[in-house]
């Protein structure tokens, strides 16, 4: 039997290579603008040239025509695939096609703004880029114009001017900075306004011409801060305001010393995650044990890993081919992770802290819940009964497995929660779908887990039992990983829950 040690930040050997890039923070007026080089913020698609191919920030390959890249240098480049201002959707449509269309790519240029592996300051790297582009003389390879401004007033005027011409905004790059990766104040994005999301808490009736309509509303942002929004609504929205509990997007112009958004104004209702993700298909690794599928196991990986991580575990579970199981290993989206200083990696939600009760915000978690719920819906639409669908999750994936399984409107086969925790427990248990009461749950944890302490498991297991769930709990002398005895216990539990009392360890890779 193979012993698996699947750690929280371990990335699978089969995972895509995600480039380590410099990511922008938001501009604040307190900086000295004269120390930065300024350029237009293009509304294109960021692309990293690794010397052989163009790839996205998430590590996905852009299938550019051979003629487009054949004369590119064998050094790393960072830039934007771009057509023109206001042509973002056309750019996306062109560069994401698996089969590139020459006629469409003829409109694309690659606008450079960084030499990731070059030495020297950014000012020196800009000069190196300009020399490189001049020597290569490739018509569609250019360097984004960089220039200096002396004061904040000059920056504001330039921003107003360039936005009026259809630009998205400006970028500021510290001219004396060596190359860095991750989110850093050496690179700043400047827009006319910032936007964020908040949940509607209360409607306040208007006065005068808005009598008997919405005057303003109290909202709560993702950090729990409450404030009023009273502008930005049209007449129809005042007559039929966003529902209590719905999510909205608002714009603002910086923040006060107390952190409140300045001049907050309504922009739009944010589409509910369940609606937004209903038609989306998660990129997944799928393993089917036979041609005739009657059961589905959806297995969610941990932070920084991907769906490939647990694929080698299937033979060790010794589940029979005859059981007809489809294993789905979805890949979490790539996103900045606050705890890792903004570095982007696959994550089911932004990890804010390891301190209990402060790990994540609920709205972020519920977005992934909606995603996995949609995946369950897809399996049911394929003819798999809900009671034959089981959720498994390790670490972050375990959080989403629990939150999804307890909320799903139809009774599932069960949940396997591995080395995980249960945030928002009180609120979640108050909102659970009553059809899930009695649901079998396998909860396992390492006694020596340094990432998610055993106390988390010791806390949520009794809470689930008291709420009416059938919990089989195990702890093992291990850290944040799996061990051979745990795999044996998982196998025995799965055979009972999925009613697969056979002995076989074969499977077919789809």
Give a nutshell description of this structure:
The chain is α/β, with parallel strands linked by helices and 510 residues long. The chain is 25% helix and 27% strand. The protein has an eight-stranded mixed β-sheet, with helices on both faces.
Helices, strands, pairings?
Elements: E1 22-26, E2 36-41, E3 45-49, E4 54-55, E5 61-62, H1 66-69, E6 77-82, H2 88-95, H3 102-105, E7 109-114, H4 122-136, E8 141-143, H5 152-164, E9 169-174, E10 182-190, E11 194-205, E12 214-221, E13 226-229, H6 235-239, E14 247-252, E15 265-269, H7 273-278, E16 284-288, E17 295-300, H8 314-317, E18 325-330, E19 334-337, E20 343-346, H9 362-381, E21 389-394, H10 396-407, E22 414-418, H11 425-431, E23 440-446, H12 454-466, E24 470-476, H13 484-497, E25 508-509
Parallel strand pairs: 1-10, 7-8, 17-18, 17-21, 21-22, 22-23, 23-24
Antiparallel strand pairs: 2-9, 3-4, 3-6, 4-5, 6-7, 9-10, 11-12, 11-14, 12-13, 14-15, 16-18, 16-25, 19-20
Could you walk me through the main structural features you see in this protein, from its secondary elements to its overall organization?
- There is one protein chain.
- By secondary structure, this protein is an alpha/beta fold.
- The protein has three domains: 169 residues, D-amino Acid Aminotransferase, Chain A, domain 1, CATH 3.30.470.30; 77 residues, Nucleic acid-binding proteins (OB fold (Dihydrolipoamide Acetyltransferase, E2P)), CATH 2.40.50.140; 232 residues, Rossmann fold (3-Layer(aba) Sandwich).
- Helices cover 25% and strands 27% of the residues.
- The strands form five sheets. Strands 24-23-22-21-17-18-16-25 form an eight-stranded mixed beta sheet, sandwiched between helices. The protein has a six-stranded mixed beta sheet with strand order 5-4-3-6-7-8. A five-stranded antiparallel beta sheet has the order 13-12-11-14-15.
- β7, α4 and β8 form a beta-alpha-beta unit.
- It is globular and about 70 Å long.
- The relative contact order is 0.11.
- The N terminus and C terminus are likely disordered.
């Amino acid at each position: 039997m193979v012993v698996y040690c699947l750690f929280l930040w371990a990335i699978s050997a089969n995972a895509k290579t995600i480039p380590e890039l410099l990511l922008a923070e938001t501009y604040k007026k307190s900086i000295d603008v004269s120390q930065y080089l300024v350029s237009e913020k293009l509304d294109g698609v960021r692309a990293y040239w690794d010397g052989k191919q163009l790839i996205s920030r998430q590590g996905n390959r852009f299938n550019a025509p051979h003629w487009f890249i054949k004369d590119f240098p064998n050094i790393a480049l960072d830039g934007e695939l771009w057509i023109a201002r206001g042509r973002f959707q056309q750019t996306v449509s062109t560069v994401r096609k698996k089969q590139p269309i020459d006629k469409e790519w003829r409109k694309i240029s690659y606008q450079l703004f960084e030499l990731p592996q070059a030495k020297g300051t950014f000012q020196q790297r800009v000069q190196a880029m300009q020399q490189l582009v001049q020597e290569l003389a490739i018509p569609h390879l250019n360097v984004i114009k960089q220039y200096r401004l002396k004061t904040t007033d000059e920056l504001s005027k330039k921003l107003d001017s360039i936005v009026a011409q259809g630009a998205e905004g400006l970028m500021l790059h510290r001219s004396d900075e060596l190359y860095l990766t991750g989110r850093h104040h050496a690179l700043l994005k400047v827009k006319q306004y910032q936007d964020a999301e908040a949940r509607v808490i209360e409607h306040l009736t208007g006065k005068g011409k808005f009598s008997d309509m919405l005057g303003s509303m109290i909202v709560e942002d993702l950090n729990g801060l409450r404030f009023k929004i009273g502008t930005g609504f049209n007449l129809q929205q005042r007559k039929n305001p966003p529902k209590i509990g719905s999510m909205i997007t608002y714009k603002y112009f910086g923040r006060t010393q107390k952190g409140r958004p300045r001049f907050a104004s309504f922009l739009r209702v944010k589409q509910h995650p369940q609606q937004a993700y209903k038609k989306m298909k998660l990129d997944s690794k799928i393993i089917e044990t036979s041609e005739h599928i009657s059961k589905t196991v959806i297995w969610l990986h941990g932070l920084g890993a991907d769906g490939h991580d647990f694929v080698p575990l299937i033979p060790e579970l010794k589940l029979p081919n005859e059981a007809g199981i489809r294993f789905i290993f979805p890949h979490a989206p790539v996103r900045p992770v606050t705890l890792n200083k903004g570095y982007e990696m696959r994550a089911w939600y932004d990890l804010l802290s390891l301190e209990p009760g402060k790990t994540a915000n609920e709205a972020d978690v519920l977005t992934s819940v909606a995603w996995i719920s949609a995946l369950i819906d897809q399996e049911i639409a394929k003819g798999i009964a809900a009671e034959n669908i089981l959720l498994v999750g390790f670490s972050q994936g375990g959080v989403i497995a629990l939150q999804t399984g307890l909320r799903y409107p139809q009774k599932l086969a069960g949940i396997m929660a591995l080395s995980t925790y249960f945030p928002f427990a009180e609120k979640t248990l108050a909102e659970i779908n009553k059809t899930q009461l009695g649901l079998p749950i396998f909860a396992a944890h390492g006694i020596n887990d340094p990432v998610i302490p055993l106390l988390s498991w010791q806390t949520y297991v009794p809470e689930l039992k008291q709420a009416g769930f059938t919990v089989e709990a195990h702890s093992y002398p291990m850290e944040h990983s799996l061990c051979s005895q745990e795999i044996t216990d998982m196998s025995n539990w799965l055979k009972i829950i999925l009613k697969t009392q056979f002995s076989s360890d074969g499977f077919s890779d789809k």
